């Protein structure tokens, strides 16, 4: 699909019409594939620059109006939408005018403060908001089911758009047979721009509570606030064997990371290379490390159209190698990790 109806004002339309005219006349195409790719890249770069410039213009105009409201407005009288703009501007600027933190606290107590504004103050608020942020932290500890939503806002800010639960949010939730009674452990990791931040493992009597407490721990970590998450009281089973194998349902990349966290693999590292033209790139990922039990070097490579796809392919092979090493350890050919 393409458009071709406005060659006077859209250069891509002119290119399309030249191609169609040549085909209709039985002439060779006027552009080689390389020339078309270069033209498309050039046009897209200029369109992106134009969109950014327009967005920046309107952003600056909105900021000017918000700054005016900050200097003159009675915050309590502002409609919520205007209040939210003022609050966001103050958080980004790193300082709040007198009265704004108090009115934000009032709206918090009245349950008027919405998620976007709650998360902005909680995660990024400066010194003027510090007492309020500590109150928010205690509120979140009482209502830990909200913590996952705060993490989602944090990711949206880092990605500049929608969050993929598959690519950006990695959960590990497993039964903990080493403890008496039903007990589940949960960890969450956020992945963005080659960065990975993860929570400590939290133990609870059911999966939902374990996930909430893990999310609460990570939210506090990202905000630089005290970790008020908790583990359920649990008594270790005297006869429980140490668990090494990761559940089969865990995705390969996450499984390899868990093996590193459990001390099965030391020095885990990932390297990426990219080949091919911009419109048809092929990424290669190489993962490697050392099996702690034997010192054996383990490595695997994977390829794909994206970094994530390449890492998943490499992880799939690396997981097999690691688990083969564990299996050999259990049969006595190697000492167990």
UniProtKB/TrEMBL annotation:
InterPro entries: NA-bd_OB-fold, RNase_II/R, RNR_Ribonuclease. This is RNB domain-containing ribonuclease. GO terms for molecular function: 3'-5'-RNA exonuclease activity; RNA binding. Signal peptide: none annotated. The lineage of its organism: Bacteria, Bacillati, Actinomycetota, Actinomycetes, Glycomycetales. SUPFAM superfamilies: Nucleic acid-binding proteins. GO terms for biological process: mRNA catabolic process. Pfam families: RNB. It comes from the Bacteria. Residues 1-23 form the RNB domain. It comes from Glycomyces artemisiae.
């Amino acid at each position: 699909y393409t458009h071709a109806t406005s060659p006077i004002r859209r250069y891509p339309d002119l290119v399309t019409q030249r191609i169609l005219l040549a085909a209709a006349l039985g002439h060779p195409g006027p552009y080689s594939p390389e020339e078309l790719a270069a033209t498309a890249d050039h046009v897209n770069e200029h369109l992106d620059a134009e969109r950014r410039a327009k967005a920046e213009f309107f952003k600056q105009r909105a900021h000017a109006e918000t700054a005016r409201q900050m200097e003159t407005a009675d915050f309590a009288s502002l409609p919520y939408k205007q209040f939210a703009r003022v609050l966001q501007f103050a958080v980004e600027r790193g300082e709040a005018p007198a009265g704004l933190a108090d009115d934000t606290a009032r709206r918090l107590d009245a349950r008027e403060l919405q998620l976007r504004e709650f998360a902005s103050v909680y995660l990024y608020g400066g010194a003027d908001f510090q007492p309020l942020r500590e109150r928010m932290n205690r509120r979140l500890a009482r209502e830990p089911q909200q913590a996952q939503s705060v993490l989602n806002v944090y990711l949206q800010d880092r990605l500049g758009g929608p969050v993929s639960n598959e690519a950006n949010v990695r959960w590990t939730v497993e039964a903990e047979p080493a403890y008496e009674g039903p007990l589940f452990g949960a960890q969450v990791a956020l992945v963005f721009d080659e960065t990975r931040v993860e929570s400590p493992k939290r133990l609870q009597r059911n999966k939902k509570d374990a996930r909430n407490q893990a999310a609460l721990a990570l939210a506090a970590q990202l905000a630089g606030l005290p970790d008020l998450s908790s583990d359920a009281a649990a008594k270790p089973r005297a006869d429980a064997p140490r668990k090494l194998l990761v559940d089969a349902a865990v995705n390969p990349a996450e499984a390899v990371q868990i093996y590193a966290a459990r001390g099965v693999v030391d020095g885990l590292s990932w390297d990426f290379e990219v080949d091919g033209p911009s419109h048809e790139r092929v990424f290669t990922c190489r993962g490697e490390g050392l099996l702690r039990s034997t010192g054996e070097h383990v490595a695997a490579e994977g390829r794909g159209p994206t970094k994530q796809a390449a890492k998943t392919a490499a992880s799939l092979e690396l997981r097999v190698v690691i688990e083969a090493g564990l299996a050999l350890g259990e049969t006595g050919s190697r000492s167990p990790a």
